[in-house]
Amino acid sequence: MTIENNVERSVFDEVMVPCYNPMEMIPVKGEGSRVWDQQGNEYIDFAGGIAVSCLGHCHPAMVSALTEQAQKLWHLSNVMTNEPALRLAKKLTEVSFAEKVFFANSGAEANEAALKLARRYAADTFGPEKSEIIAFKQGFHGRTFFTVTVGGQAAYSDGFGPKPGDVTHLPYNDVEALKAHISDRTCAVMMEPLQGEGGIISPTDEFAQTVRELCDKHNALLVFDEVQTGNGRTGHFYAYQGLGVTPDILSTAKSLGGGFPIGAMLTTTKLAAHMKVGTHGSTYGGNPLACAVAQAVVDVVSQPETLQGVAEREALFRQGLAKINDKYHIFSEVRGKGLLLGAVLNEQWQGRARDVLVAAGEQGLMVLVAGVNVVRFTPSLVIDKRDIEQGLEKLDQAIASLVASNA
Question: Which residues cross the membrane (predicted)?
Fold first, then answer.
Protein backbone atom coordinates (compact mmCIF):
# COMPACT_ATOMS: atom_id res chain seq x y z
CA MET A 1 0.00 0.00 0.00
CA THR A 2 1.55 3.31 -1.07
CA ILE A 3 0.02 6.56 0.09
CA GLU A 4 0.58 9.90 -1.59
CA ASN A 5 3.22 11.76 0.35
CA ASN A 6 2.44 15.48 0.54
CA VAL A 7 4.01 16.61 3.79
CA GLU A 8 7.49 15.71 4.98
CA ARG A 9 8.80 15.42 8.53
CA SER A 10 11.03 18.47 7.90
CA VAL A 11 7.88 20.64 7.90
CA PHE A 12 7.59 19.92 11.64
CA ASP A 13 10.94 21.62 12.27
CA GLU A 14 9.89 24.49 10.05
CA VAL A 15 6.49 25.38 11.53
CA MET A 16 5.93 23.64 14.90
CA VAL A 17 6.92 24.87 18.37
CA PRO A 18 9.85 22.57 19.25
CA CYS A 19 8.49 21.15 22.52
CA TYR A 20 8.17 17.68 20.94
CA ASN A 21 10.68 15.46 19.20
CA PRO A 22 8.49 13.21 17.04
CA MET A 23 9.73 10.12 15.24
CA GLU A 24 10.81 10.45 11.60
CA MET A 25 7.93 8.40 10.23
CA ILE A 26 4.49 9.98 9.81
CA PRO A 27 1.48 7.67 10.31
CA VAL A 28 -1.35 8.32 7.89
CA LYS A 29 -3.82 5.47 8.41
CA GLY A 30 -4.86 3.18 11.23
CA GLU A 31 -7.20 0.23 11.59
CA GLY A 32 -7.59 -1.78 14.77
CA SER A 33 -4.11 -2.14 16.26
CA ARG A 34 -2.27 -1.58 12.98
CA VAL A 35 -0.94 1.69 11.61
CA TRP A 36 0.58 2.59 8.21
CA ASP A 37 3.03 5.41 7.49
CA GLN A 38 3.48 7.58 4.38
CA GLN A 39 5.66 4.92 2.75
CA GLY A 40 3.07 2.20 3.41
CA ASN A 41 5.15 0.53 6.16
CA GLU A 42 2.94 -1.32 8.64
CA TYR A 43 3.28 -1.09 12.44
CA ILE A 44 1.64 -2.91 15.32
CA ASP A 45 0.46 -0.41 17.92
CA PHE A 46 1.28 -1.21 21.56
CA ALA A 47 1.24 2.53 22.41
CA GLY A 48 -2.37 3.44 21.72
CA GLY A 49 -1.57 7.14 21.47
CA ILE A 50 -0.41 7.05 25.13
CA ALA A 51 -3.35 5.05 26.55
CA VAL A 52 -5.90 6.90 24.40
CA SER A 53 -6.92 4.59 21.55
CA CYS A 54 -8.69 2.11 23.82
CA LEU A 55 -10.68 0.58 20.94
CA GLY A 56 -7.84 0.83 18.44
CA HIS A 57 -7.97 2.98 15.32
CA CYS A 58 -11.23 3.73 13.47
CA HIS A 59 -13.38 1.36 15.54
CA PRO A 60 -16.76 0.96 13.78
CA ALA A 61 -18.76 2.09 16.86
CA MET A 62 -16.74 5.31 17.04
CA VAL A 63 -16.80 6.01 13.31
CA SER A 64 -20.56 5.48 13.27
CA ALA A 65 -21.16 7.76 16.30
CA LEU A 66 -18.98 10.51 14.85
CA THR A 67 -20.44 10.46 11.34
CA GLU A 68 -24.01 10.31 12.66
CA GLN A 69 -23.46 13.24 15.03
CA ALA A 70 -21.54 15.19 12.38
CA GLN A 71 -24.74 15.33 10.32
CA LYS A 72 -26.71 16.74 13.27
CA LEU A 73 -24.95 19.25 15.53
CA TRP A 74 -21.32 20.14 16.19
CA HIS A 75 -21.25 22.89 18.78
CA LEU A 76 -23.57 24.94 20.98
CA SER A 77 -21.67 26.44 23.96
CA ASN A 78 -22.84 25.99 27.51
CA VAL A 79 -25.57 28.58 27.19
CA MET A 80 -27.54 25.45 26.19
CA THR A 81 -27.14 21.77 26.95
CA ASN A 82 -27.25 18.99 24.36
CA GLU A 83 -28.43 15.40 24.12
CA PRO A 84 -25.05 13.64 23.66
CA ALA A 85 -23.64 15.42 26.75
CA LEU A 86 -26.65 14.42 28.85
CA ARG A 87 -26.53 10.81 27.68
CA LEU A 88 -22.80 10.54 28.37
CA ALA A 89 -23.05 12.17 31.80
CA LYS A 90 -25.87 9.78 32.75
CA LYS A 91 -23.80 6.82 31.56
CA LEU A 92 -20.73 7.93 33.57
CA THR A 93 -22.82 8.17 36.75
CA GLU A 94 -24.06 4.62 36.08
CA VAL A 95 -20.56 3.12 35.78
CA SER A 96 -19.01 4.97 38.74
CA PHE A 97 -19.64 6.41 42.23
CA ALA A 98 -20.37 9.82 40.71
CA GLU A 99 -23.64 11.72 40.77
CA LYS A 100 -22.47 14.81 38.89
CA VAL A 101 -20.23 15.40 35.85
CA PHE A 102 -18.32 18.40 34.45
CA PHE A 103 -17.01 18.10 30.88
CA ALA A 104 -13.69 19.49 29.66
CA ASN A 105 -11.38 18.86 26.69
CA SER A 106 -8.41 17.12 28.29
CA GLY A 107 -7.02 15.45 31.38
CA ALA A 108 -5.27 18.62 32.52
CA GLU A 109 -8.56 20.54 32.31
CA ALA A 110 -10.44 17.80 34.19
CA ASN A 111 -7.75 17.98 36.90
CA GLU A 112 -7.87 21.78 36.93
CA ALA A 113 -11.61 21.54 37.61
CA ALA A 114 -11.02 18.91 40.31
CA LEU A 115 -8.43 21.05 42.11
CA LYS A 116 -10.56 24.19 41.89
CA LEU A 117 -13.55 22.30 43.28
CA ALA A 118 -11.47 20.92 46.17
CA ARG A 119 -10.19 24.39 47.08
CA ARG A 120 -13.63 25.99 46.70
CA TYR A 121 -15.34 23.34 48.84
CA ALA A 122 -12.74 23.71 51.61
CA ALA A 123 -12.95 27.52 51.58
CA ASP A 124 -16.76 27.52 51.62
CA THR A 125 -17.06 24.85 54.31
CA PHE A 126 -14.06 25.34 56.60
CA GLY A 127 -12.53 28.71 55.72
CA PRO A 128 -9.65 30.05 53.57
CA GLU A 129 -6.83 28.62 55.72
CA LYS A 130 -7.77 25.04 54.72
CA SER A 131 -5.99 25.16 51.35
CA GLU A 132 -3.09 22.67 51.33
CA ILE A 133 -3.04 20.14 48.49
CA ILE A 134 -0.95 17.01 49.05
CA ALA A 135 0.27 15.19 45.95
CA PHE A 136 3.01 12.65 45.30
CA LYS A 137 6.53 12.67 43.90
CA GLN A 138 6.75 11.37 40.31
CA GLY A 139 3.02 12.00 39.91
CA PHE A 140 1.71 13.58 36.72
CA HIS A 141 -1.50 15.59 36.48
CA GLY A 142 -1.24 17.65 33.29
CA ARG A 143 0.51 20.69 31.84
CA THR A 144 -1.51 23.70 32.94
CA PHE A 145 0.41 25.74 35.51
CA PHE A 146 -1.76 24.55 38.41
CA THR A 147 -1.78 20.87 37.41
CA VAL A 148 1.93 20.76 36.53
CA THR A 149 2.72 22.28 39.95
CA VAL A 150 0.61 19.64 41.69
CA GLY A 151 2.35 16.98 39.58
CA GLY A 152 5.44 15.69 41.34
CA GLN A 153 8.09 16.22 38.65
CA ALA A 154 9.84 19.56 39.10
CA ALA A 155 11.48 19.33 35.66
CA TYR A 156 8.04 20.02 34.14
CA SER A 157 7.10 22.93 36.42
CA ASP A 158 10.41 24.78 36.96
CA GLY A 159 11.37 27.82 34.92
CA PHE A 160 7.98 29.48 34.53
CA GLY A 161 8.14 31.88 37.45
CA PRO A 162 6.31 31.74 40.81
CA LYS A 163 4.20 28.60 41.21
CA PRO A 164 0.73 28.28 42.72
CA GLY A 165 1.27 27.89 46.47
CA ASP A 166 0.34 25.48 49.24
CA VAL A 167 1.17 22.30 47.33
CA THR A 168 3.15 19.59 49.15
CA HIS A 169 4.79 16.53 47.54
CA LEU A 170 5.28 13.33 49.52
CA PRO A 171 6.72 9.95 48.43
CA TYR A 172 4.13 7.64 46.83
CA ASN A 173 3.31 4.51 48.86
CA ASP A 174 4.89 6.01 52.01
CA VAL A 175 2.17 5.63 54.64
CA GLU A 176 4.28 7.04 57.48
CA ALA A 177 5.22 10.21 55.58
CA LEU A 178 1.55 10.89 54.85
CA LYS A 179 0.51 10.24 58.46
CA ALA A 180 3.23 12.59 59.69
CA HIS A 181 2.30 15.43 57.34
CA ILE A 182 -1.47 15.53 56.73
CA SER A 183 -3.39 17.94 58.95
CA ASP A 184 -6.69 19.79 59.25
CA ARG A 185 -5.16 22.42 56.93
CA THR A 186 -5.12 19.83 54.11
CA CYS A 187 -8.00 20.40 51.71
CA ALA A 188 -7.25 17.55 49.31
CA VAL A 189 -4.97 14.65 48.52
CA MET A 190 -4.51 14.10 44.79
CA MET A 191 -3.10 10.83 43.48
CA GLU A 192 -3.06 8.45 40.58
CA PRO A 193 -4.40 5.02 41.63
CA LEU A 194 -1.46 3.68 39.58
CA GLN A 195 1.27 6.14 38.64
CA GLY A 196 1.66 6.25 34.85
CA GLU A 197 4.30 8.74 33.69
CA GLY A 198 6.21 8.21 36.95
CA GLY A 199 7.15 4.65 36.00
CA ILE A 200 4.00 2.44 36.27
CA ILE A 201 3.91 2.25 40.08
CA SER A 202 0.95 0.48 41.72
CA PRO A 203 -0.21 1.61 45.15
CA THR A 204 -0.04 -0.90 47.99
CA ASP A 205 -3.44 -1.82 49.45
CA GLU A 206 -2.35 -0.32 52.76
CA PHE A 207 -1.42 2.99 51.11
CA ALA A 208 -4.71 3.28 49.20
CA GLN A 209 -6.77 2.45 52.32
CA THR A 210 -4.74 4.77 54.57
CA VAL A 211 -5.07 7.74 52.20
CA ARG A 212 -8.85 7.35 52.33
CA GLU A 213 -8.91 6.99 56.12
CA LEU A 214 -6.65 10.02 56.68
CA CYS A 215 -8.70 12.16 54.28
CA ASP A 216 -11.85 11.26 56.25
CA LYS A 217 -10.13 12.01 59.57
CA HIS A 218 -8.96 15.46 58.45
CA ASN A 219 -11.99 16.45 56.31
CA ALA A 220 -9.83 16.45 53.19
CA LEU A 221 -11.11 15.38 49.79
CA LEU A 222 -9.54 12.42 47.99
CA VAL A 223 -9.01 13.21 44.31
CA PHE A 224 -8.16 10.31 42.00
CA ASP A 225 -6.51 11.22 38.73
CA GLU A 226 -7.77 8.41 36.48
CA VAL A 227 -6.80 10.12 33.23
CA GLN A 228 -4.52 7.21 32.30
CA THR A 229 -6.00 4.40 34.44
CA GLY A 230 -9.67 4.99 33.63
CA ASN A 231 -12.11 3.63 31.07
CA GLY A 232 -11.20 -0.04 31.38
CA ARG A 233 -7.42 0.33 31.27
CA THR A 234 -6.79 -1.76 34.42
CA GLY A 235 -9.61 -4.25 33.80
CA HIS A 236 -12.09 -2.35 35.97
CA PHE A 237 -14.00 0.54 34.43
CA TYR A 238 -12.15 2.79 36.86
CA ALA A 239 -9.05 1.67 38.76
CA TYR A 240 -10.51 2.72 42.13
CA GLN A 241 -13.02 -0.13 41.77
CA GLY A 242 -10.17 -2.63 41.93
CA LEU A 243 -8.68 -0.96 45.02
CA GLY A 244 -11.85 -0.92 47.09
CA VAL A 245 -11.30 2.78 47.80
CA THR A 246 -13.75 5.40 46.53
CA PRO A 247 -12.53 8.95 45.88
CA ASP A 248 -14.58 12.13 46.33
CA ILE A 249 -13.57 13.52 42.94
CA LEU A 250 -12.28 11.64 39.88
CA SER A 251 -10.79 12.98 36.65
CA THR A 252 -10.99 11.06 33.39
CA ALA A 253 -9.82 11.80 29.83
CA LYS A 254 -7.35 10.10 27.43
CA SER A 255 -9.28 6.96 26.45
CA LEU A 256 -12.68 8.47 27.34
CA GLY A 257 -13.04 9.62 23.74
CA GLY A 258 -10.96 6.80 22.28
CA GLY A 259 -9.00 9.42 20.31
CA PHE A 260 -11.47 12.30 20.22
CA PRO A 261 -10.42 14.99 22.74
CA ILE A 262 -12.63 15.00 25.84
CA GLY A 263 -12.15 15.04 29.60
CA ALA A 264 -14.49 14.92 32.57
CA MET A 265 -14.51 15.55 36.29
CA LEU A 266 -16.81 13.27 38.27
CA THR A 267 -18.02 13.98 41.79
CA THR A 268 -20.92 13.85 44.24
CA THR A 269 -24.00 16.08 44.40
CA LYS A 270 -22.86 17.48 47.76
CA LEU A 271 -19.49 18.65 46.39
CA ALA A 272 -20.82 19.74 43.00
CA ALA A 273 -23.11 22.24 44.74
CA HIS A 274 -20.03 24.40 45.44
CA MET A 275 -19.47 24.97 41.71
CA LYS A 276 -22.26 27.50 41.31
CA VAL A 277 -23.12 29.23 38.02
CA GLY A 278 -20.13 31.26 36.86
CA THR A 279 -17.48 29.67 39.10
CA HIS A 280 -15.98 27.53 36.34
CA GLY A 281 -16.57 26.80 32.67
CA SER A 282 -15.31 25.64 29.29
CA THR A 283 -16.27 26.77 25.81
CA TYR A 284 -15.90 23.33 24.25
CA GLY A 285 -16.62 21.21 27.34
CA GLY A 286 -19.60 18.95 26.65
CA ASN A 287 -19.23 19.41 22.89
CA PRO A 288 -21.86 17.25 21.10
CA LEU A 289 -19.35 15.60 18.72
CA ALA A 290 -16.96 14.65 21.53
CA CYS A 291 -19.76 13.39 23.78
CA ALA A 292 -21.36 11.29 21.04
CA VAL A 293 -18.04 9.54 20.36
CA ALA A 294 -17.28 9.12 24.07
CA GLN A 295 -20.66 7.55 24.70
CA ALA A 296 -19.97 4.96 21.99
CA VAL A 297 -16.58 4.26 23.62
CA VAL A 298 -18.05 3.91 27.12
CA ASP A 299 -20.82 1.62 25.80
CA VAL A 300 -18.24 -0.78 24.35
CA VAL A 301 -15.64 -0.57 27.14
CA SER A 302 -18.15 -1.03 29.98
CA GLN A 303 -19.32 -4.37 28.56
CA PRO A 304 -18.25 -7.22 30.91
CA GLU A 305 -16.60 -9.09 28.02
CA THR A 306 -14.42 -6.06 27.17
CA LEU A 307 -13.25 -5.67 30.77
CA GLN A 308 -12.69 -9.43 31.12
CA GLY A 309 -10.71 -9.36 27.87
CA VAL A 310 -8.28 -6.85 29.41
CA ALA A 311 -7.18 -9.41 32.03
CA GLU A 312 -6.75 -12.09 29.33
CA ARG A 313 -4.60 -9.75 27.25
CA GLU A 314 -2.55 -8.72 30.28
CA ALA A 315 -1.72 -12.40 30.86
CA LEU A 316 -0.55 -12.74 27.23
CA PHE A 317 1.69 -9.68 27.58
CA ARG A 318 3.19 -10.92 30.86
CA GLN A 319 3.86 -14.40 29.43
CA GLY A 320 5.42 -12.96 26.27
CA LEU A 321 7.61 -10.48 28.17
CA ALA A 322 8.78 -13.25 30.53
CA LYS A 323 9.75 -15.36 27.50
CA ILE A 324 11.73 -12.46 25.99
CA ASN A 325 13.40 -11.86 29.35
CA ASP A 326 14.42 -15.51 29.64
CA LYS A 327 16.37 -15.02 26.41
CA TYR A 328 17.92 -11.59 26.87
CA HIS A 329 17.85 -10.83 30.64
CA ILE A 330 16.92 -7.20 30.10
CA PHE A 331 14.01 -6.60 32.52
CA SER A 332 14.06 -6.65 36.34
CA GLU A 333 10.25 -6.80 36.60
CA VAL A 334 6.99 -6.09 34.80
CA ARG A 335 4.83 -3.59 36.71
CA GLY A 336 1.31 -2.34 36.37
CA LYS A 337 -2.18 -3.71 35.92
CA GLY A 338 -4.40 -4.61 33.00
CA LEU A 339 -3.09 -2.99 29.83
CA LEU A 340 -1.07 -0.30 31.59
CA LEU A 341 2.19 -2.23 31.87
CA GLY A 342 5.80 -1.23 32.38
CA ALA A 343 8.79 -3.49 31.72
CA VAL A 344 11.54 -2.17 34.02
CA LEU A 345 15.08 -2.32 32.64
CA ASN A 346 17.65 -4.04 34.86
CA GLU A 347 20.98 -2.59 36.00
CA GLN A 348 22.85 -3.46 32.80
CA TRP A 349 20.25 -1.60 30.72
CA GLN A 350 19.75 1.53 32.84
CA GLY A 351 18.69 4.64 30.93
CA ARG A 352 17.98 2.79 27.69
CA ALA A 353 14.19 2.69 27.48
CA ARG A 354 14.22 5.06 24.51
CA ASP A 355 16.73 2.81 22.72
CA VAL A 356 14.18 -0.01 23.03
CA LEU A 357 11.42 2.28 21.72
CA VAL A 358 13.51 3.28 18.66
CA ALA A 359 14.64 -0.31 17.95
CA ALA A 360 11.00 -1.49 18.22
CA GLY A 361 9.96 1.20 15.74
CA GLU A 362 12.56 -0.08 13.28
CA GLN A 363 10.95 -3.53 13.55
CA GLY A 364 7.44 -2.15 12.97
CA LEU A 365 6.27 -1.95 16.58
CA MET A 366 5.08 1.15 18.46
CA VAL A 367 5.80 1.20 22.21
CA LEU A 368 6.23 3.94 24.84
CA VAL A 369 8.52 4.79 27.72
CA ALA A 370 7.71 5.90 31.28
CA GLY A 371 10.93 7.59 32.30
CA VAL A 372 14.37 6.44 31.11
CA ASN A 373 14.20 2.94 32.62
CA VAL A 374 10.70 1.69 31.85
CA VAL A 375 9.28 0.48 28.52
CA ARG A 376 5.53 1.15 28.67
CA PHE A 377 2.72 -0.71 26.89
CA THR A 378 -0.77 0.81 26.61
CA PRO A 379 -2.38 -0.94 23.62
CA SER A 380 -6.02 -1.07 22.62
CA LEU A 381 -8.18 -2.89 25.17
CA VAL A 382 -9.57 -5.02 22.34
CA ILE A 383 -6.27 -5.63 20.53
CA ASP A 384 -6.41 -8.84 18.49
CA LYS A 385 -4.52 -11.60 20.30
CA ARG A 386 -2.55 -12.40 17.13
CA ASP A 387 -1.40 -8.77 17.09
CA ILE A 388 -0.10 -9.22 20.65
CA GLU A 389 1.79 -12.33 19.55
CA GLN A 390 3.24 -10.68 16.45
CA GLY A 391 4.06 -7.47 18.31
CA LEU A 392 5.97 -9.39 20.96
CA GLU A 393 7.91 -11.16 18.19
CA LYS A 394 8.89 -7.73 16.84
CA LEU A 395 9.92 -6.67 20.36
CA ASP A 396 12.05 -9.82 20.58
CA GLN A 397 13.75 -8.88 17.29
CA ALA A 398 14.28 -5.28 18.47
CA ILE A 399 15.94 -6.40 21.69
CA ALA A 400 18.01 -8.99 19.80
CA SER A 401 19.33 -6.18 17.57
CA LEU A 402 20.26 -4.08 20.64
CA VAL A 403 21.98 -7.06 22.29
CA ALA A 404 23.92 -7.73 19.07
CA SER A 405 25.04 -4.10 18.74
CA ASN A 406 26.13 -4.13 22.42
CA ALA A 407 28.28 -7.20 21.79
Answer: none
Does the annotation list 360 as a binding residue? no
Q: Is 151 in contact with 94 (CB distance < 8 Å)?
A: no
Q: How confident is the model at residue 6 (pLDDT cuts 50, 70, 90)?
A: confident
Work out the average pLDDT over 229-258.
Answer: 98
b (16+ CB within 10 A) / e for 241-256: bbbebbbbbbbbbbbb
Distance CA 68, CA 293 (A): 10
Q: Is 226 annotated as a binding residue?
A: yes
Q: Are 43 and 35 in contact (CB under 8 A)?
A: yes
What total of structural domains would you count in the chain? 2
Q: Is 122 annotated as a binding residue?
A: no
Last residue of a domain, one of 254, 270, 301: 301
Residue range(s) defining the domain that contains residue 19: 10-58+304-406
282 annotated as belonging to a binding site for a ligand: yes
143 is in an annotated binding site: yes
Q: Are strands 42-45 and 167-170 parallel, antiparallel or unpaired?
A: unpaired
How does DSSP assign 153-208, residue by residue? -HHHHTTSSSPPSSEEEE-TT-HHHHHHH--TTEEEEEE-SSBSTTT-BPPPHHHH
Are 292 and 345 in the same domain?
Answer: no
Please give the helix or strand (H or E) that residue 209 lies within, else none: helix 205-217
First-residue to last-residue Cα distance in the chain: 36
Is 283 flagged in the annotation as binding?
yes
Query: Quick one: pLDDT at residue 69?
Result: 98
Look at the pTM and tell me if it is higher than 0.90: yes
> Binding site annotation covers 157?
no
